[in-house]
């Protein structure tokens, strides 16, 4: 096992998964049923990528959605109930507390669920690039949102996701991780254009299967 005081420590990834019935409302070219299916598929691909990262020991999802929970648990992902049920940041803080109650020295990262083009190797690269930064984040492709927020052992995660979260995390002292090669980690999907961009990067098996079932040509939508 890598040393806990080095950049290659073993991480726990926490993925918040919204109620799929109300997820992805900005994918206006899709029906409510299709949006729900895509939301689950995005989460499955993001969780799979996290699971495939060699520096990740545990992947935890936070969700009250039965459909997402069942599919994630089938992949071997631990699912915690969103007990506060008061928004993404309380959910992440609750999950972080639960993880560290079990493993006080856990290195934590909160990661978006809607990253269908993420690969485990990209997540590994991001963690290694962060080096010894105590708390750091990755902004979305637009530079305004956050797709991943990480905190080393003993450091409060202090999630501030939401509108202009990149600026909020930077102001709270987190270091912005920049550089090329992180497109899959920056590519969260909210709009039809985001989905097209993810398809161009190459979506994971679950999103590919969902899109194919909807009769869409994954090569170009």
Concise summary:
With 221 residues, this protein is of the alpha/beta class.
Global geometry: globular
| Total number of beta strands | 7
What is the CATH topology assignment? Spore Coat Polysaccharide Biosynthesis Protein SpsA, Chain A
Low-confidence parts lasting 5 or more residues at pLDDT below 50? 1-5
**What would the average pLDDT be, to the nearest integer?**
92
**Fraction of residues in β-strands:** 15-25%
CATH classification, class level = Alpha Beta
Structure description:
The protein has 221 residues and is an alpha/beta fold. The chain has a single domain (11-213), classed as Spore Coat Polysaccharide Biosynthesis Protein SpsA, Chain A (Alpha-Beta Complex), CATH 3.90.550. It is 39% helix and 15% strand. It contains eight helices and seven strands. The protein has a seven-stranded mixed β-sheet with strand order 3-2-1-4-6-5-7, with helices on both faces. Helix 1 (32-52) runs antiparallel to helix 8. The radius of gyration is 16 Å and the shape is globular. Mean pLDDT is 92; it is low at 1-5.
List its traits.
221 residues, Spore Coat Polysaccharide Biosynthesis Protein SpsA, Chain A, disordered N terminus, alpha/beta, seven-stranded mixed sheet
């Amino acid at each position: 096992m890598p040393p806990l005081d080095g950049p290659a420590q073993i991480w726990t990834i926490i993925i918040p998964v919204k109620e799929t019935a109300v997820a992805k409302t900005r994918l206006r070219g899709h029906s409510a049923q299709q949006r729900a299916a895509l939301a689950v598929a995005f989460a499955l691909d993001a969780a799979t990528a996290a699971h495939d990262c060699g520096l990740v020991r545990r992947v935890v999802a936070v969700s009250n959605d039965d459909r997402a929970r069942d599919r994630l648990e089938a992949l071997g992902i631990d699912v915690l109930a969103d007990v506060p049920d008061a928004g993404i940041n309380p959910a992440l803080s609750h999950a972080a507390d639960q993880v560290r109650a079990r493993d006080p020295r856990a290195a934590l990262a909160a990661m978006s669920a809607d990253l269908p083009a993420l690969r485990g190797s990209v997540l590994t690269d991001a963690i290694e690039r962060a080096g010894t930064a105590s708390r750091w984040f990755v902004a979305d492709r637009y530079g305004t949102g956050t797709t991943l927020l990480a905190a080393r052992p003993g450091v409060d995660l202090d999630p501030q996701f939401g509108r202009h979260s990149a600026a909020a995390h930077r102001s709270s002292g987190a270091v912005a991780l920049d550089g090329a090669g992180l497109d899959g980690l920056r590519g969260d999907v909210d709009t039809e254009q985001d989905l097209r961009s993810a398809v161009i990067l190459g979506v994971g098996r679950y999103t590919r299967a969902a899109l194919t079932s909807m009769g869409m040509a994954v090569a170009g939508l």
